[in-house]
Write a structure and sequence with these properties.
two-stranded antiparallel ribbon, about 140 residues, 5 strands, alpha+beta, three-stranded antiparallel sheet, elongated
């Protein structure tokens, strides 16, 4: 399985279509199985035996589990659908009270002349609003 270090190492790797060797290496890296086939065996009692890369402090070199137990452990590694894997806490969170003091504002928000922001009366913050189709069409047709 890719560790967090290995994942971070390959997260932003790019290669051109003409770089066939680098593309093959990248494909081999991202398609590796969660467990190496050489380290997984089934014993005579139909249990899964996983050989560890390095022995633990107590001398353990193998882990023996039932096949259902292996499936449960592998399934626990798969994130739930539509779950954010990166969480932002404290001041940078979207509903933080001090966020407006920390997050920089663009030039149009600072002047308040943007047609993309709409402030409700009595509201201390402004939020981006969608531009209507009529206004977008007017913009496009005005430039032609």
């Amino acid at each position: 399985m890719l560790t967090s270090r290995a994942t971070a190492q390959h997260a932003a790797v790019r290669c051109g279509a003409d770089e066939r060797q680098r593309l093959e290496q990248l494909c081999r890296t991202i398609t590796r199985p969660a467990l190496a086939n050489e380290r997984v065996h089934i014993n005579s009692a139909r249990q899964v035996v996983l050989k560890l890369k390095t022995a633990w402090r107590d001398g353990t070199t193998h882990i023996v589990m039932l096949s259902l137990e292996v499936m449960q452990r592998l399934a626990a590694l798969v994130p739930r659908p539509r779950l954010h894997l990166i969480r932002i806490h404290e001041v940078l969170a979207s509903n933080a009270k001090l966020r407006a003091l920390v997050v920089p504002h663009g030039p149009e928000q600072a002047t308040g002349n943007s047609e993309l922001t709409a402030a409700e009366p009595g509201c201390t913050h402004s939020r981006p609003a969608r531009i209507s189709w009529a206004r977008l069409l007017k913009r496009v047709l005005a430039t032609t």
